[in-house]
Amino acid sequence: SSSGTNDAAPPETTNTYTVKYGDTLWGIASKHGMTVSALKTKNNLSSTIIFPGQRLVITGQAPSEQPSAPENTQPSSPGVSSSALIQEAKKHLGSPYLWAGSTPAGFDCSGYLKFVFGQVDEYIPRTVASIYAYNDFNAVSDSNRQPGDVVFFETYKPGASHAGIYLGNNEFIHSGSSTGVTISSMNSNYWSKRYIGTKRYVD
């Protein structure tokens, strides 16, 4: 008879879940790859009202296996999440250019970079030249350039004097003196002639 009980409840397909404060039936169902109606049917529920401490029968993978999956699908630099960095950078599209500015009220190019990195809890220096020389940035080849890397240009003086965050598809986001925060093409006549290299923040 003991083998019969094992056959009836294989652990890989049936689990129980204890309801926590703040849980919803929809949230529990989606977390375990079920529909709300399937969850209600499996537990003989006549409504969607559930209570903390209530035990529900669920099917599918154990919840501990779920959270790791999305993280693996996002490419990121070793030192900072590229998706978080780019998301923060794009929040400020249209902010005006301001010499020595380092807030959304107005950015110069390095003030913009310092602010965006700071919003994802990473410290970088204040000027483009010092960012270019900073130990936490490693040079990467153009063929290995990834979204979230910093691209550098030589503009109004010799050496690195302008920079932006690479977005992919040969586009970068930066605070330009005539545009404010904008997205530009590295293939443009102006930027392609002035490009000097790419670096990746590695913390």
Please count the beta strands (DSSP E, at least 2 residues each). Answer: 10
Low-confidence stretches: 1-5, 61-78
Class of secondary structure makeup: alpha+beta
Q: What is the mean predicted local confidence, pLDDT?
A: 84
- CATH fold-level name of the largest domain: endopeptidase fold (from Nostoc punctiforme)
Order of helices and strands: HEHHEHHEEHHEEEEEHE
Number of H- or I-type helical stretches: 8
Indicate the percent of residues in helices.
25-40%
> What is the CATH class of the largest domain?
Alpha Beta
Number of domains: 2
Rg on CA atoms, Å: 25 Å
Task: Please state the overall shape, judged from the principal axes of the Cα atoms.
Answer: elongated
- In whole angstroms, how far apart are the ends? 59 Å
Annotated CATH homologous superfamily of the largest domain? endopeptidase domain like (from Nostoc punctiforme)
What order do the strands of the largest sheet run in, or round the barrel if closed? 5-10-6-7-8-9
Described by strand count, sense and barrel closure, the largest sheet is: 6 strands, antiparallel
Beta fraction of the residues? 15-25%
Architecture of the largest domain, according to CATH?
Alpha-Beta Complex
